[in-house]
Amino acid sequence: MLKLSRLTDYAAVVMAQIARHPQASHAAADLAEAVQLPHPTVSKTLKMLVRAGLLASQRGAQGGYRLARPASQITAADIISAIEGPVAMTECSQAQGECELAATCGVADNWQRVSLAIRTLLESVTLAHLAASTPLKLPVQLPIQSISLSAVSA
Amino acid sequence: MLKLSRLTDYAAVVMAQIARHPQASHAAADLAEAVQLPHPTVSKTLKMLVRAGLLASQRGAQGGYRLARPASQITAADIISAIEGPVAMTECSQAQGECELAATCGVADNWQRVSLAIRTLLESVTLAHLAASTPLKLPVQLPIQSISLSAVSA
DNA sequence: TAATTGGGTACCATTTTAGTCCTGTATAAA
DNA sequence: TTTATACAGGACTAAAATGGTACCCAATTA
């Protein structure tokens, strides 16, 4: 299904929740309550987001989490790779020259290009977009079609 | 990692192999040999591709597999969904109204839009592109950026 | 009718994922 | 300085998905 893991899904929801109140410091327990998810799981997710540099944490009373930078400077790709590691469709999309089947494969190059296109797309969607109540209007139908078609002839 | 499953990867490689010799009928054993993968696994993959209508099979001596339609009419999205099911980034990208967290989620709509954009991208890449030895040149950097930027203002 | 080749199913091993818990450490307020 | 708050890190377990294998059946052709 090319699906995000559930934790990544949680991460996006939690990040969006924080992004809607950027000034406040958010305790893990409050966030868990707000998004209706088990506290330990949310906590785990938050730690991963801190380690990836997307959130800043403050210990002690009145502590909590806040965005490490403005929501407009945090991308969907950032959130995904914070939880799942780098966005890559295949093994060989990440590290070059480690697949022993490369000789018989014959699709590696093009998969990597598709993978790159998806990564770029995900980098163009920011947390500010995701958190906005106004739906992000991606005019997917025509423009992306035209991109790949022109790409073929190029 | 937003990664394809290994079987999906195999499927793409096998499909590309068949696409390079569209007239011939390809026995599972021959394909397994050509792409250097275990026979039973390749066989399993082939069956899934048949069930999805991407390959046609012929039993008996001189039988084998061939493309059900031209390589230019088979998309990356077809291959992925043949193995993994519909392309969708989150649970709620597929079926509307089944997520009980929708009220507190707040990102569902926009995730669905991103998911749709990726699906459209994958539908624009055909097996003919993947199988081509000439790299598919997707000019990802500028055009896709401009799409999403214009999308925001739209 | 025998040889070839795909079809289907069931099964097992492994890995990944999700979720929980426990203990430690930093901070702030009383 | 004490105490309550809240994050940090890691270990552990349970469950699910994935990948791989084996076996037997069905169809086709020579």
From TrEMBL, chains A, B:
<dbReference type="GO" id="GO:0005829">
    <property type="term" value="C:cytosol"/>
</dbReference>
<dbReference type="InterPro" id="IPR036388">
    <property type="entry name" value="WH-like_DNA-bd_sf"/>
</dbReference>
<dbReference type="InterPro" id="IPR000944">
    <property type="entry name" value="Tscrpt_reg_Rrf2"/>
</dbReference>
<dbReference type="Pfam" id="PF02082">
    <property type="entry name" value="Rrf2"/>
</dbReference>
<dbReference type="GO" id="GO:0003700">
    <property type="term" value="F:DNA-binding transcription factor activity"/>
</dbReference>
<dbReference type="InterPro" id="IPR030489">
    <property type="entry name" value="TR_Rrf2-type_CS"/>
</dbReference>
<dbReference type="InterPro" id="IPR014290">
    <property type="entry name" value="SUF_FeS_clus_asmbl_reg"/>
</dbReference>
<dbReference type="InterPro" id="IPR011991">
    <property type="entry name" value="ArsR-like_HTH"/>
</dbReference>
<protein>
    <submittedName>
        <fullName>SUF system Fe-S cluster assembly regulator</fullName>
    </submittedName>
</protein>
<dbReference type="InterPro" id="IPR036390">
    <property type="entry name" value="WH_DNA-bd_sf"/>
</dbReference>
